[in-house]
Write a structure and sequence with these properties.
Largest sheet: 5 strands, mixed
Strand order of the largest sheet: 1-2-5-4-3
Number of strands: 7
Radius of gyration: 24 Å
Distance between the termini: 84 Å
Shape: flat
Structural class: alpha+beta
């Protein structure tokens, strides 16, 4: 390989690396923001609505395969136009209501743009799949410019995530053998999705009942309103701050 060809190869490799890094940085931005929301929620509500998050980047091979299926141009603009899930972030919550709380918090961030929303919780897929999908455009500051990068965010409960993981394993196993998933398994998967949905609704009811008990205890606790806790550090509120709440006194 001559020097010119090597230089071209290096330039192309650098372009691909830079392109993929944009999506990696977009995931970093989203995970940082989710971390901030979690801390704020813990301090103000003494409750964390997010159990865990998981992110992933599609491989260049997977991107090209999907581009071939969609019939898009093999170019960076073609990829950006046709492939919206290069960067994926999954947020797992404890309860159904948490899903919409997190969704609303993300929508309220003025520099994030929600391009698309698919609610597979209110409208499950025929196979029983449930989750809330958001396509979010994220600002990413590179060394020479700002890019708007698309990230697919999936928000679901623990029960939904467990079902989706099982469904993926079953389909993957049969796909490896070039076989079709038996109708009996598909029916059982759908029944399992309905059972998971019923469990989510029951857990939501229990959660609200426990929240009501905790709220009553909080109201009856003496002196708690005179303290705040940040990063496990407790601070007493000076009387001057408390007087701001009652300026007429």
């Amino acid at each position: 390989m001559n020097q010119l060809a090597m230089n071209e190869l290096k330039r192309f490799r650098d372009e691909i690396t830079r392109f993929m890094m944009m999506y990696k940085f977009a995931l970093d931005v989203m995970e940082t923001r989710i971390g901030v929301l979690v801390e704020e929620f813990q301090f103000l509500h003494e409750y964390n609505p997010i159990e865990h998050t998981k992110s992933r980047l599609k491989s260049p091979e997977s991107i090209l395969n999907k581009l071939y299926r969609k019939g898009g141009d093999i170019s960076f603009p073609g990829i950006r136009e046709h492939i919206k899930d290069i960067a994926g972030l999954r947020i797992t919550c404890s309860f159904l209501s948490d899903i919409y709380v997190i969704s609303d918090m993300l929508k309220n961030q003025v520099d994030l743009t929600v391009l698309e929303e698919k609610d597979y919780i209110r409208n499950p897929k025929p196979n029983g799949y449930q989750s809330l999908h958001l396509l979010i455009e994220v600002p990413v500051n590179m060394s020479d410019r700002q890019e708007r990068v698309c990230v697919e965010v999936q928000i679901r409960t623990i029960a939904m995530d467990f079902w989706a993981s099982l469904e993926h394993k079953i389909y993957y196993k049969y796909k490896q053998g070039n076989e079709t998933v038996p109708a009996r398994l598909l029916e059982e998967l759908k029944e399992a999705a309905q059972a998971a949905s019923a469990l989510d609704r029951q857990m939501e009811r229990l959660h609200k009942e426990v929240e009501g008990i905790e709220e009553e205890r909080s109201l009856s606790a003496e002196g708690k309103e005179n303290r705040i806790v940040i990063s496990n550090q407790q601070y007493a509120l000076p009387q001057a701050f408390l007087d701001l709440m009652n300026p007429g006194k």
